[in-house]
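Reply to dn_fold:

You asked what the input looked like. This is it:
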Amino acid sequence: MKARALIFLLFAVGGLIFAKPSFAEEKVKIKLSTGLDYSTGDYGDTQDTSIWYWPLITKATYEDWTAKLTIPYLRIKGPGVVVGGGGGVVNPNGSAAVTTESGLGDIIGALTYTLDLKDHDLYLDFTGKIKFPTADEDKGLGTGETDYTIQVDATKMFGNAYIFGGVGRRFIGKSAQFQLNDIWLLNVGGGYQVNKKLGVGVAYDFREAASTAEDPSEASAYLTYKFSDSVTTMLYGVVGFSDGSPDASVGLQLSYKFDLF
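and this is what came back:
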């Protein structure tokens, strides 16, 4: 389910898939994003779990700093195996009965500093994130614990093409219900800006499992389209390679950006 974390990073944080970024601007840039993500998979169980994920994302950029707040809504239908708060989190005590639960997910705040190495067309992002335990743990929508993540991402431009990669460490709050472990995260990929409006790309995302699941391993492909300087959209699909990932996921995101002052 957390392949969407990489997609959100590309779409809402990096800002590098539409055009070469421009940092160190005096104005405060605001980007509002929303979308819909649907994933399904058995996660090593005999029955599938389907997850609908609706995020509301607000991003503010000033000079080299970017602050982001993600407020998600979740709907999970399955046997109580998958915990909505993070990829690779499986509840070994989950019920075998198929139920449907929905509600507010875990709110995530992030702060990123971008180092723009103009002479090398290279951009380095240093990010810190906090996952606040706002999801109902009794419904299986979250772990009920606070998580912290530190991550470094790099993007290298080659004209209209680019490659990217990142590594991070997530420190996961301890749960009284089941064992949770701190994990490493890795992502790599690349893309091409076909013209001023259309862009395409692929990515691979790997994470250690936070609990008893297999390590999540996923590949994604995405297409971006810029309707105007203010409005952009993304379509993407994800394929999972392990029981820690969904078998498949599809999604759509839409964003609107403007200058605050």
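Confidence is low (pLDDT under 50) at residues 11-24.
Hope that clears it up.
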